[in-house]
Amino acid sequence: MEFQLTAKDPHSHARAGLLTTDHGTIQTPIFMPVGTVGSVKALNQQQLTDAVKAQIILGNTYHLYLRPGTEILEAAGGLHRFIGWDRPILTDSGGYQVFSLSNNRKLKEEGALFQSHIDGSKHLFSPEKVMDIQRSIGADIVMAFDECTPYPAEYDYAKKSMELTHRWLARCIHHFDQTMPLYGYSQSLFPIVQGSTYQDLRKASAEYVASMHADGNAIGGLSVGEPEALMYEICALCCEHLPEDKPRYLMGVGTPWNILENISLGVDMFDCVMPTRNGRNGMLFTSKGIINIKNKKWATDFSLIDEGLDNNISNYYSKAYLRHLFIAGEFLALQIASIHNLSFYLQLVTEARAHILQGDFQRWKQEMIPLLKTRL
Amino acid sequence: MEFQLTAKDPHSHARAGLLTTDHGTIQTPIFMPVGTVGSVKALNQQQLTDAVKAQIILGNTYHLYLRPGTEILEAAGGLHRFIGWDRPILTDSGGYQVFSLSNNRKLKEEGALFQSHIDGSKHLFSPEKVMDIQRSIGADIVMAFDECTPYPAEYDYAKKSMELTHRWLARCIHHFDQTMPLYGYSQSLFPIVQGSTYQDLRKASAEYVASMHADGNAIGGLSVGEPEALMYEICALCCEHLPEDKPRYLMGVGTPWNILENISLGVDMFDCVMPTRNGRNGMLFTSKGIINIKNKKWATDFSLIDEGLDNNISNYYSKAYLRHLFIAGEFLALQIASIHNLSFYLQLVTEARAHILQGDFQRWKQEMIPLLKTRL
After folding, report:
1. Cα radius of gyration (chain B)
2. B177-to-A11, B143, B180, B210, B215 alpha-carbon distances in Å
3. Which candidate in A9, A92, A146, A268 is catalytic?
4. Which residue intervals of chain A are DSSP H helices?
5. From the list A81, A313, A331, which residue is nearest B331 (CB)?
6. How close B303 gets to chain A, by Cα (Å)?
């Protein structure tokens, strides 16, 4: 994996770059649609490339381990071949899901014991096990196994949690280095900064992570309930202590304005379920503001969903039709809303990149943010 | 509307034709995907044209009247514009749904009183009202309001039901002739033959319907629980007494082999929810036979869903991946299965047409039917 910084914004820490993997080059800053269990919910892979213009998607280790399982993934020749996706993939390590989804989870030095949310079967995720699973999945970028410290956390808990994440990181790196990719292309391991909202912990964690000289680095444990201002403050601090010549990935963030603000702090990669999950609930992010498409006011609005978007969905179907599909409970509603929102997110980061290259990112961002937050 | 008979099979009553509407020409025999409430479930309109190659789709008067309602449809400029579909549309009259879906329905000479299955509101569907609604919807082909006689029916009930359908038909035609299309293109009204499984009633009904000299004629009240042999016998009798120079539409039929058998009896048009509904339950019709894709045997079958189909879904995704999507409860499963099955139905009627033109339809049909019924 190679990361090339193409441009830096003169008035912020925003950067434009090129991240090259064996499955192709990603233009950063980038948003990565979430394909939890081998599918970005409600769309197919051709729609992801052609309409959404996704450059990289996410998979989730916890979900893929439970279904279809590593045996089937290995028999298929890895996740790319299994799902028919030849662009880059990143897999989340599953730490977050073990604590948010599974039952009877128990944190130990060895790893996390948990019961499947599907059938109650018992499993242990250790750093070594999670590396092995991610070898079987075969993502281009694999994440270290961490504890995503909940918010709020007492200082002592946050410190112990961070230290555990650091010890697990060392084991992840050791095991990853001892194993080989299974499918003939290379994989990169990204460590994760934790430390809750405590500046000294975050600084220590970012410095520890930086000392690993990984191909890229992630910031975890943000956008978990803390105020936005605090997220930005902690993210800025992490970016400051993470290497400038490596991509920075802010996990699980966020709203369109969160993304622009964090780009200005030096973040290069984002993922979030918001565009798909909120889309499925009828919330649309558009170039004129936020729409609740189920609202009666759209019932006879025959204007396009968003003519500003270059895809054959947002500039083909009307708001009135999409509202009708939601009210009638049609599956097509979910498909259209998901494609629209993801397309909007991808266009947003693409425009952000263009403005970084032009040198007017900061001014553009200040103009965009009130627009993005407008409720129509 | 014009119907041109292009070829007749020398060894059966199968015909190939061209049905020209103001929204384009349909090659018959044809299968029409069902888009009940303005959406063929789980796919978008581009997928319907590009992958499925649908030439005409169905809408349903009962559903569209309740949601979004005629006011919104008229404001949109009709169903075609509302849903973004510029090929032909046929609307079912709603008689079937009133009796299968609504509550507290009551049949009177005037029409059918019923309560909405959505909110319990009370409505009257009369022949005149149903013609008005179908003017508002603006389908190219609109159906007469009938009572779909349930099976089995006593002779007396079937006779009275048929006579009511005939009286309603006269009112439909009268009212339709007194009103104008709303959107600048023409609409054709198809009457429906009823008479249950009684030969004399079916003959009388077909003769009555034929005497109306409509642009096309439909056969209703079949595939409602009667044995297949009886369906074919009644269908053959109806075809015999319906005009040869007008298209014949067999409503709500059926399995792939039902379609081939009825084509050989002289039917030109079909619709059925089977490809989409069964698809959503994991039942796939393929060129090698029927698959229950949820079955464990497909878990590691990485072969394509159906390489014999010319679309970018069936010959792109594997059986193992589609099974995984079903087991994991992903929306994409429904999209893929629906596109696949509809594409299979459309390819089947397209091949049937080619064989009619070649003159070897009957031989081909005999070879195909055992294959279509095979359970893999």
Report:
1. 20
2. 71, 14, 8, 17, 13
3. A92
4. 45-47, 61-66, 70-76, 79-83, 95-100, 127-137, 155-178, 199-210, 228-241, 256-265, 274-280, 319-327, 331-358, 361-373
5. A331
6. 10
- Summarize pLDDT for A199-237 with one digit per residue, the tens: 999 999 999 999 999 999 999 999 999 999 999 999 999
Q: Judge if pTM exceeds 0.90.
A: yes
**Interface contact flag, B67 A312, Cβ < 8 Å:** no
Burial of A367 (0-12, 13-18, 19+ CB in 10 A): exposed
Q: To the nearest whole angstrom, how far is the Cα of B76 from the nearest Cα of chain A?
A: 7
ipTM topping 0.85: yes
B109, two tokens: 């000479």
Is A271 part of the annotated catalytic residue set? yes
Judge whether residue B19 has pLDDT over 80: yes
**Active-site annotation holder among B9, B140, B268, B271:** B271
Is B50 marked active-site?
Answer: no
Of B346, B56, B77, B295, give the one whose Cα is nearest residue B190.
B56
Q: What is the pLDDT of residues A317-334, one digit of tens each?
A: 999 999 999 999 999 999
Sign of the alpha-carbon torsion through B83, B89, B95, B100? negative
How many angstroms separate the CA of residue A81 from the nearest CA in chain B?
9
A362 touching B (Cβ < 8 Å) = no
- Residue B120, Ramachandran bin (φ over 0: left; ψ between -120 and 50: alpha; else beta): left
Tell me, yes or no, if B38 comes closer than 8 A to chain A by beta carbon: yes
For residue B266, which amino acid is it? G
Longest dimension (CA), chain A: 61
